[in-house]
Amino acid sequence: MVQVTVTAALKVAGGPTLPLSSTLQPQSYTFASVALNATGGAGDEQSVDLLPDGGTVVLLGVAAHTPGGKAAAVTLTPVNGTTEGEPFGIDGTLLIATPGVLAALVDGGPRSLKFANAGTESVIVEVLTGLEPS
Q1: Parallel, antiparallel, or unpaired: how do β-strands 88-91 and 93-96 relate?
Q2: Percentage of residues in the chain having pLDDT higher than 90
Q3: How many angstroms separate the Cα of 3 from the Cα of each of 39, 98, 130?
């Protein structure tokens, strides 16, 4: 087992703060990093495999940034075999720590992710997943 702690706080200027935290204990995890060239160039799209043949993704964290560290926009398409879910945009970060939400991204849950750069600068995309056996 791996222990993963997720912490965040939603703060409204002049309003409430909602602290959020959770500790997950997936069986294992994966980490990948890919570089995407600027939109329209060779290498502006890449896929990241999340799982071997078995297992379920129970945690997905994505950070997209320029080489200088500025948040970047990318399009993510969840994939399971030959089935693709609906593509959606990410501006900097994405965190999904609910297995039911992850399963709803594509039939059978994501086994890989396709990323496409949505900007004019190169982008680095880092992906952390928590995995459970089937």
Answers
A1: unpaired
A2: 79
A3: 37, 15, 10
